[in-house]
Amino acid sequence: MEKHVQTLGILHIVYSSFGLLAGMVLFFLFMGLGTFIGSLPDTPGPVNEGVPALLFVIGLVIVTILFLFSIPGIIGGIAILNRKEWGRILTLIIGFLDLLSIPFGTALGIYTIWVLMNDQTIALFRKPEVSVKPAV
Predict the structure, then answer these.
(1) Residue 7 in domain
(2) Residue pair 25/66 in contact by the 8 Å Cβ criterion
(3) Domain hosting residue 31, numbered range
(4) 110 SS3 class
(5) Per the structure, how many domains does the chain have?
(6) pLDDT in tens, 40-96
(7) How confident is the model at residue 108 (pLDDT cuts 50, 70, 90)?
């Protein structure tokens, strides 16, 4: 199961990085479109004034949402590569949420649940108990 955990961590980092990349591309797309519309010759109405600002706000909202959903995936992927128990829980939560993202997120979510709910994986993430002997 150790290979599956390593593969899963890398997949979550890559999948979430695509979310960050998509957010940046969409932001620059909205900014470019707003700049283009703002540079058009004067047309009747308030198109040149309000639309660029509106496109900036829409782009900013989309980027914020994509970043908020992508950052935990990267953190969880790094944490399960380092065998952190909290990372396993975080990645499980993300895996359940990924089920709603058809088709790639669904496949990743199913794989996440299968790997991280396995008894061998749970044992892999458990820290060995340290016994402390009292001083005599």
Answers:
(1) yes
(2) no
(3) 2-125
(4) helix
(5) 1
(6) 776 666 556 677 788 888 888 999 999 999 999 999 999 999 999 999 999 999 999
(7) very high
